[in-house]
Amino acid sequence: MMATTSDTASTGEPSAKDMRLVISASSLGTVFEWYDFFIYGTLAASGIIGRTFFPAGSEMVQTLLAWAGFAVGFGFRPLGAVLFGYLGDRLGRKYTFLVTITLMGIATAGVGLVPSAAAIGMAAPLLVLLLRVAQGLALGGEYGGAAIYVAEHSPPGRRGFFTSFIQASVSGGFILSLAVVLTAKLTMSDAVWQAWGWRVPFLFSIVLLAVSLWMRLKLSESPVFQAIKDAGETARNPFVESFTYPGNGRRLFVALFGIAAGLTVIWYTALFTTLSFLQTTMRVEETTAQLITGVGAVMGLIWFLLAGRLSDRVGRRQPIVIGYVATLVLLFPIFWYMGAAANPNLAHAAREAPVIVAGPRCRYDPFVARQKDECGQLLDYLSKKGIAYTTAEAPAVAVTVGGVPVAEHSPAAIDAALVGAGYRLEKVVPSPGNIVRILVAIFLLAALSGATYGPVAALLTELFPPRIRYSSMSIPYHIGTGYFGGFLPLISQYIVARTGDPFAGLWYTWSVVAMSLAVVIVFLRERDLIKE
Questions:
Q1: d(Cα 384, Cα 399) in Å, to the nearest integer?
Q2: Which residues contact 400 (CB under 8 A, 6 or more apart)?
C-alpha cells in the first residue's frame, strides 16, 4: 500500500505566521460550513423541522421524515466528493473549497426562506430536500479540501496536531449551531420563535459565508499541489486514477470501512444521539438539553487536539484502535449513566415498574400515520412519550405497569398508571449535581470521538498519493460519513421505536465500530503512510 509519490515537492516550510493563517482560515471555514449543515439537525431534534416542512398524522412519522431529510444531505456527499475531488486534483485546493463554501451558504439560507407546508403544500418538503442535496454536494468537497490544504502546508512531525484543528472544527460547527439557536431563542418570545424565529439561524449563514470568503481569499495555493502543477504532473482524470492507481483499491477500502465508517458513528452518537436522547427519551427541557450538550461539546474539543498531537508521536493507527476498543466497552455504560442522571425518576421507574404490552401479534410500525390495531396504537402512544416497553404474545390486548394491570386503555388511564408507578411525564430540569454527571458522560463520549477523529485528517492525507489525494481521500470519507453516519439518527430512532428500548439504537453504532476495528487491525499499517 505504500505510495510512490511523496510530499517532498513542497516549495518550503511555511512560517509560523503563515501556518496560523492557514489553520485559522481553513478551520473557521470548516466551522461555518458544518454549522450550515448541522443547523438542520439541531432544529430537527427539537421537532420544528418536522412540524414545519413534514407534517403528518403521526408525530413519530413526522420525526422520521425530518431525520430522513437530514440523511438526504449526507446521501449526496459522495457525489460532491467525486465532483469537487476531481476539481481539487485538477484545478487546485484553494479555489475548490471557495466554491464549496459559497454553495453551502446559499443553500442554507435558502432553507430559512422556504415557506411552510401549510402555505405551499408538498412544494415545501421538496424544496427543503433539494436544498439539502445542495448542502450535501458542497460538504462533499469541503472537508477534503480544508484537511488536505492544512496537511500539505504542515511539516510531517506536526501534521497530526495541525490538522486536528480541522477535526475539532467539525464539532465547532455543531457547537456554533447550538449557540446561535439558543441565542435566538433567548432574544425572542417562544411564540415568535415557533412562528418564524427559528429561521434566523439559517439566514445567519449569509454572514458566516461573507467572513469565510474574506479569510479564504487571502490564502495561496497548497505548495504540494503547486509543485505538481508546475511540473505538469496533475492527474488527467483523478476519479478514474483513484480506482486504478496501484494499491489504491486497498487504501480506499481501509479509508471507507476502517476509518470513515467507525469514526463518524461515534461522533454522531456523541453529539446528535446525545441531544436527541436528552430531549426526547429522558424528557429533559429542550433549552436545558441544548445548553448541556453544547457545554459538553466545548469541553470535549480538547480531546481532538490531544489525539492529533499524540498521533505525531505514536503513529496515526494507535489512537484510533484505542478509541474503537474503548467505544465497544464503554458506549452502553456511558448512556446508562447519562440516562440515570438526566431523569432519575424516569430511569428508576423504568427499572422498578416495567411496562409490558401484550396482545395477539402485537407490532408497531413507525412509518404509518395510524396503527392498524389497538396494540399498535398503545405502542405508538408509549413511543411518543419516550416510555420504554416490552411486548408479549397474548390472546387479548393487555397493559401492565409494574405488574399491575391497567383496566382501561385510554391515554388518561395509561398516564395515571404511569404516574402512579413513579414515571415523570413532564419535561424536567436536572439538578446541578446531575447536570455535572451528564457533562462527565458527554466529556467521556467526546474522548471516544476525539481519539478516533483527531488523527484522521493527517492519516487520510498520508494514505493517498498527492496527485489524486483530493479525490481518493474525499470519496471513501464521504461515503462512510454520508451513509454510515448520516443515516444513524434515522436507523437508531427506528430501532428504538420498533423495540421500545431507548438504548437499543446504540447497537447500530456498536456494530459499525466493531467492523471498523477489525478492518483497521487487519489492513492498516503505519508503513502504509507517506510520512515525508
A1: 17
A2: 355, 356, 358, 406
